[in-house]
Amino acid sequence: MKILKSLSAITLVILSLIFIQCSDDNVNLTTPVKIRLTDAPAQYDKVNIDIQAIQFHSSNDDTKESGWQEMDLLNAGIYDLLEFNNGLDTLLVDQDMPSGTVSQMRLILGENNSVVIDGVPYVLDTPSAQTSGLKFQIHDDFIAGIEYELWIDFDAARSIVETGNGKYKLKPVIRTFNEATSGVISGSINPAEALPTIHAIIGLDTTSTIAEANGDFMIKGLQSGIYKLDLMPIDGYTEKEIEGIEVNNGAVTDAGTIEILAN
């Protein structure tokens, strides 16, 4: 009986040590995280955003400032959003992060934000972004050992508001997506000179882009489903709709070459 009691005690000690070791391992689990900046095109020469920091919040209580943790921003400074559209992006963060649930992220902006219109630069007023940051909801999991890639997608056309007297304000319209839970529509416009704004519509949701000078376009971060493309070209060309564009998560749907007729 004494031997059995001794063995039981030893067993409990061993199991306790294993549990403690596993708990320590779970605490130290990390997820490789990449965060990229992209943009929906706009009819401006430049939209310069001064990004100084990126932070994330892992608590469900977003009222606790202590819950915010800063990421390692690769390059702080000014980014022209219009350089990153139709499939282009730039890498902001590339680091291992503690695994777990993330509820929010935010961009902290500096003071050098501007929009350039017809060659003339205008200061963008962004008071809240310089203090509390541009917040956006994530509610996603950083799973241990599995790379997590997130795109921060500005809609520059809807984010800039003219307040009068030659003044402009940044009221950001931002969405986020990752490739595992979203799809892409790509295609080409003929003639390229039609330069249409292209709206991908599903239900009440619309995601837009503007075709490049060569006619190519790409709309990323789309939920799976059946879309309608609504093409709004410049004056001199006829509007066009295309129904039944199927989008699947993690895949690119090629809409082919879309012909736009002149008026």
Automatic annotation (TrEMBL):
Signal peptide: 1-23
Superkingdom to which the source organism belongs: Bacteria
Domain annotation DUF4382: ranges: 30-172
Keywords on record: Signal
InterPro entries, per database record: DUF4382
Protein name: DUF4382 domain-containing protein
